[in-house]
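Design a sequence for this backbone.
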């Protein structure tokens, strides 16, 4: 019987199987940030186990409240900073070099096909875009990962999503994943790997695949995953060029990280996305979706462009294309946060930040702050935000606030009009 890519990764990393259905896997990467990791660090200190399994495989960043907004946040950052120094963790990204974790770690080439990756962050599933198994974990699992380099997982069940058709202009990866979540529900992939395949995926860039996999957790998925191909090789080439003689050789090696034709799946969904329109969320669940055209006229107070979902350079280019020559509506606050310093610099060099500023946007440093209502764009009670982030739970961006998730193009168009609307790129 054939195997899925997730099963193949599990088999290649299996250390022990203490119980039926339970797999202890060797980890290739343990990612850390200042919100969840300090709890694990302090517990390890209390147990006289302040050490790491491999300082080269642990990567850490301060990314949520940066720079610190109060003493409590500063202490969380200090705990992570001091721990990284004590344990000789070279790949620690402090203030000035830091960015959104699920953007800066792929940008640095830390994720490869066939890898196992954990982090104390639900959107770790983003890294499955590279053909890796990447999952968010709790504090105990994070501690064990830091200390021993292993993590326990149940047997991987996989749901296959075949995405057919050709997307219309103005329809993006964010619209695709919101549509999928709307179809299967927030519990539709619980405890499963969401495997994305088909012509739409084949044409997606790595940044688009990361957007797709990023929101697998919003359907309950353990991880999103795409098969590695030449897109993957091209993205990683600066980091793997010394490992392979040619790109074709790298691709041939990576081909082992694909599912067999006779692999067994929990479910298989097939979607024809040729007629998909831009969509956005309503209310407080990621599966509550409507077409943008059905939400036209909905007033917003703030527009936020950024996050680990849609804060990369391609996202800023799309938003700037819509915004160029326009100004945001009176009474609307526009905030853009490039996801990493490199994205910030590249956007500045391309003139994108000037377009945002000319349009009336506030351009901020890279940070996750606004997405979870900690800093950099928190909503007041009763306010509404059109956002390119990934979660619209009640109170997510501020107590009593409403968040409508959408693509960068839709968010930019909404900023100009002051009410939810489709971008001029979409000609549906």
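Sequence:
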């Amino acid at each position: 019987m054939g195997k899925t890519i997730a099963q193949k990764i599990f088999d290649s990393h299996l250390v022990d199987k203490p119980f039926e259905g339970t797999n202890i896997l060797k980890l290739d990467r343990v990612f850390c940030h200042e919100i969840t990791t300090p709890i694990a660090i302090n517990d390890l200190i209390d147990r006289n186990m302040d050490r790491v399994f491999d300082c080269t495989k642990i990567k850490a960043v301060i990314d949520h409240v940066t720079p610190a907004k109060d003493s409590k946040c500063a202490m969380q950052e200090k705990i992570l900073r001091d721990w990284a120094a004590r344990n000789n963790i070279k790949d620690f990204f402090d203030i000035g070099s830091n960015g959104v974790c699920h953007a800066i770690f792929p940008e640095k080439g830390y994720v490869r096909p066939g890898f196992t990756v954990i982090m104390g962050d639900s959107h770790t599933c983003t890294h499955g875009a590279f053909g890796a198994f990447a999952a968010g974990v709790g504090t105990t699992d994070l501690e064990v990962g830091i200390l021993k380099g292993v993590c326990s997982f149940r047997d991987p069940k996989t749901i296959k999503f075949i995405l057919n058709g050709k997307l219309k202009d103005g329809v993006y990866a964010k619209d695709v994943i919101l549509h999928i979540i709307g179809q299967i529900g927030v519990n539709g992939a619980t405890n499963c790997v969401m495997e994305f395949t088909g012509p739409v995926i084949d044409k997606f860039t790595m940044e688009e695949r990361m957007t797709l996999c990023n929101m697998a957790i919003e359907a309950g998925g353990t991880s999103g995953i795409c098969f590695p191909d030449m897109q993957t090789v091209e993205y990683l080439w600066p980091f793997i060029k010394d490992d392979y003689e040619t790109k074709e050789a790298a691709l041939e090696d990576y081909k082992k990280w694909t599912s067999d034709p006779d692999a067994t799946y929990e479910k298989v969904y097939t979607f024809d996305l040729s007629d998909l329109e831009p969509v956005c969320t309503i209310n407080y669940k990621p599966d509550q979706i409507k077409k943008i055209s059905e939400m036209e006229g909905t007033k917003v107070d703030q527009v936020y462009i950024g996050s680990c979902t849609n804060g990369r350079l391609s996202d800023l280019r799309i938003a700037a294309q819509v915004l160029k020559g326009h100004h945001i509506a009176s009474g609307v606050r526009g905030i853009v946060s490039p996801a990493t310093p490199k994205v910030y610099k590249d956007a500045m060099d391309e003139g994108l930040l000037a377009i945002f500023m000319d349009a009336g946007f506030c351009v901020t440093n890279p940070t996750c702050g606004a997405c979870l209502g900690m800093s950099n764009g928190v909503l007041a009670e009763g306010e509404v935000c059109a956002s390119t982030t990934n979660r619209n739970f009640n109170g997510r961006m501020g107590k009593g606030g409403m968040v409508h998730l959408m693509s960068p193009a839709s968010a930019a168009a909404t900023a100009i009009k002051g009410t939810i609307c489709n971008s001029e790129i979409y000609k549906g």
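The chain has 16 helices and 19 strands.
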